[in-house]
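Record type: ASSEMBLY
Status: queued
Input:
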Amino acid sequence: MKRVVVVGTQWGDEGKGKITDYLAQKADIVVRYQGGNNAGHTVVIDGKKYSLHLLPSGILNPNIDNVMANGMVINPKAFIAETAKLSNFKLHISDRAHIVLPYHLELDKAYEQNKGDEKIGTTHKGIGPTYTDKSARLGIRVSTFIHPERFRSRLKELIEFKNQELLHYGKEPIDFESVYQEFSEYAKVMKPYVKDTSYFLNQAIEHNKKILFEGAQGVLLCLDHGTYPYVTSSSPTASSVPLNTGIAPWLIDGAIGVTKAYTTRVGSGPMPSEIHGDLAVRIRTIGNEFGTTTGRPRRIGWLDTVVLKHTKRVSGLSYLAVTLLDVLTGIPELKIATSYNFNGEEIDRIPADIEDFMACTPNYITMPGWNEDITQVKSYDELPQNTKNYLSKLCELVGVPLGIFSVGPDRNQTIMVQSFFEESTHD
Ligand code: IMP
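Status: finished
Output:
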């Protein structure tokens, strides 16, 4: 495969950044196609940890091109902060991506406060309000943002309008002049990277370049196919890549479904296989299950193959990349949810309505765990038999072959089982 999508198969935080960084060593281009700095991608190289939010996870490989595509929403302030920590990278920003502005952050908080107990638990990064404005034709594209006069008049018009909404929620109005002064400086820094990235990608494809498309969040947070309304405001599925990057659908060769060996979720909303108590605390501590973006403790659950089969259907998955296997070491018995009970019926799909999904209770199978330290394993054959059994049962239940597994946070603790993405020549 030459053009591959890295998809989060659960509720995000599956380790997509780590898998993208690993595969990026064999790629020519890495493309982020949706979301913004709500994402948190952790990459560890030779023991050094990098937290990325906005930039594609290929940015730490100086030889390859990184693209922030039209489907993204970009907070310029966050962009400046993140790039300031890096040197020696190749980056291209879509002129059609949308800009996150200070009123989006304020409105994100206001909507959440207004929802009270029903809040989504957003990251408060202004992502929802920015995508709302894009759909309402009230957004600011990068192409306008980098054009000082056009940005000035569009921002002035929008701030007047947005301030009325802020006042309605009891928030302070935003001062146009200071936002303009601050953000027009950011625009100058971003401008050299801006181009028509659809054109760039199509040319690269004509030259047979190898491309990774990096999803943020997970498919259960997809606006269309996730656990609505407890979702983000974009689509992390492989099927959203053509629209969000400006390439033809048939140019995508396949998708790698990054799957945590158990389940986690941050924010509100149903999670049928959730577990509580000592075991959840143990997994959270060993797996360092705290949000990269917000620091919030993540909710913990058993692996749920109903969720994974849903993702396979709505997104498409060619291989699984199973991460954080080492976190399960020492747990005597491991459960896997294989179906749900819903209204007296056994189902293996996710009901559309959130109240129906909340009423689902999972049916589990139980697998024996393993005690051996697997963190230094370098091949599938070296894994303990019970770990192999767990992996093969997972793949059998989902109906997708294993492509990669990982046994620790470092780049060199990632093991490729199938060679689906060959070495690049970097010509
Ligand atoms: P938003 O994307 O900030 O609007 O948040 C909507 C939902 O998506 C909330 O439940 C967030 O916790 C969740 N979310 C957003 N980004 C991520 C992520 O990168 N990992 C996991 N959950 C996320």
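Annotation: The domain at 98-193 is CATH 1.10.300.10 (Adenylosuccinate Synthetase, subunit A; domain 2).
Annotation: The pocket of inosinic acid is lined by residues 12-13, 38-40, 120-123, 125, 127-128, 216-217, 221, 230, 232-233, 266-267 (CB under 6 Å).
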